[in-house]
Every structure is written in structure tokens, then in C-alpha cells.
Design a protein that fits this description.
10 helices
Amino acid sequence: MDCFAAIVCYVPGFVLRLVGQSDLAHGFYIGALLCYYLRLSRIFALHEDLGPKLVMISRMMRDLRYFIFILLVIVIAYGVALEALIYPGDTNLWSIIWGVIFRPFFQMFGELMLQDIGAEGPCTDPAYPYKTCPEANNKERYALILQMLYMMFTNILLLNLLIAMFNSTFEKVEQYSAIHWKFQLYSVIREFYERPVLPQPLIILSHLWLFLKYLKNRFHLTPNILRHRTLDKVASDQMNKWEDLHALECQRNIERENRKTVENRIKDIDERTATIRDNINDFNQSKMLRKLEGTVDTASLSDVVLNFDNKKLSQMSEKINSLRSEMDGFRKDVSEIKNNTNKLESMLEMVLQSMTYQPPKPISPSNAFR
């Protein structure tokens, strides 16, 4: 896209230079030069740290594009109000555009331009691009108040909102920076792989060859090897057996992974059951000690404590029963998985004994058309 923009800027400049418009041609040449300099940033995509930064810049430019619409409304509203307040009788088109668009834009970045609104004392020399001084109608006070509100709204609210949007975009890209860099590296390698081999000005021959090749593929002047390639019956049977073999091997790997996960879960349940048993034993010992020491003074309080202990024991027993039932279910699943694994191993042995796989020979492009 940047190369296309550079060519679009260069061709009008070249034509204008031949016609004799050197000043306009110089401006188009500058635009083409800027596009070519921006093209150099493409080499940063090869670096692992600098490559994702290009993605961040492009995403931030997208955020800025949406932010500009909000900013334009505020800038034009302020510019029209200020221009009508301090230069109500101005008829110069350029000075009106300056006061409506350019002055609010520069004021947003700290260039206050107080001489334009007559806030620096009596005007003796008109400010650029005005031909007259602001009207001495004591409206500079209202202009200062309007400028104060504008500066507060843009510098405090809108600019911080834009910074927050940029920060959010930075975090999103930084989270997957490695993936973005790999895609950029692939795109650069693909771009240089598909580029013509010959340099300037012989590159026109490469483009002509690519155009003829495109016409040949577009109108099917020669058969496509991949489209018309077929396998005979023996090669097709071998390919089907090869696919079945790899499918069985994949299924076997999946069963092995499932068996490992089930065994790990059973170990976790056993450890949880052991900890619960230890807690129950500690609880029973503490209960016996409290009975022996006789620290409870009243019978009602001892009954409450005993009821509370019984509730805890019943809850723990329920947990143990549920864990035991889960362990039984897992043991059944493990036994079924082991049986299925044995069956798959036997099937694999039968398949390996019944065939000796030889991959089909690839068809060379020279033999494809015979």
C-alpha cells in the first residue's frame, strides 16, 4: 500500500515537471519521498521486539481515526463560536478557515494565540492571517472564558481518553506479541519470496512473465497438476491403509492420555480421603480429651457441644461415602480404558502383520502430462 501511494505521488509530480509546474511537482516528490521512508519501517517486522510495536502503531492509528470524529465536533464548535465573537465582520476565506480549524488545533497543544483575540492589550499589528485587528467591543473577556473551557475539555478530558485507548490497545497487543511477530515474519518472507528476481529497470520483464503466467492459469491453457492428479487402485488402497493405521495410533494416544488423567484423579481422591481420615482421628482424640478433662460446667452446654460434634462426624462420613463412590466409578472407567487399549493394541498388531506399507511415489511435473 505504501509503494502504491508513492507511485501515485510520483507520477503526477513527473508529469507536472514536464509541463513546467516545478513547485507543484516538488510537493508531489516530497510526498513520494515520505512514503518511501515509511516503507523502511517494514524491516522492523523481522525483529522480535520491534515487530509488535508496528502492530501497536497501526492499531493506535485505528483508535485515533475514531477519536478524530469526536474531536472535530468540539474543535469546530469552539472555532466557529470564537471566530464569530472576535471577528464578526471578516470575509477572507483563509482567515475564517484558520480561525475555525487551525487556531483551535494549535491551542489544544498549548499555543494560546492570545494576540488573536485581543487579550494582550491594544492591537497595533494584525496577527496572521488577519488583515485587521479584533474589534474593540470588550468581547475578549467572553473569548477568554470560552478558551478556558475549551482547554479544560480537550487537554484534561479528551487527551486522557485518547491515552487510555492507546494503553488498552498496547496491553492487548503485548499479551500476544509473539504471535503477532510470527505472522509479521511470515508475511515479510512471503512478500520477498513472491517478488520478481530482476532489478530495475529489467523488472519489467519479470512483470511481463508474471502477467503471461496469470493469463495461462486464468484461462486454463495448461492442465493443473494438483487438480487432475489421480491415484490408481493399488496406491489408493495403500493410502487408505496408511490413514487407518495412523487413525488407530492417534486413538491409542488419546486413550493413553485419558488413562493418565484418570489415574491422577484417583490419586488425588485417595489423598483427600486420607486427609479426611486423619482429621476424623484428630477430632475423636480431642473429643475424648474434653470428656476426660471435664471442662464443661453445665449439662446443657455439654449437650450442645456433643450435638455439634455429631453433626461434624455425620458430614465427614457423607463426604467419605461420596468419595468412595467416585473412586469406584473411576476404577471402572480405568478398567474399561485398559480393555479398550488392549483391543487396540491387538488390532494394531494384526494390521501391521497383514500389510507392509509403501508410500505412493510422488508424480513429477514432467510425467503429469503424459
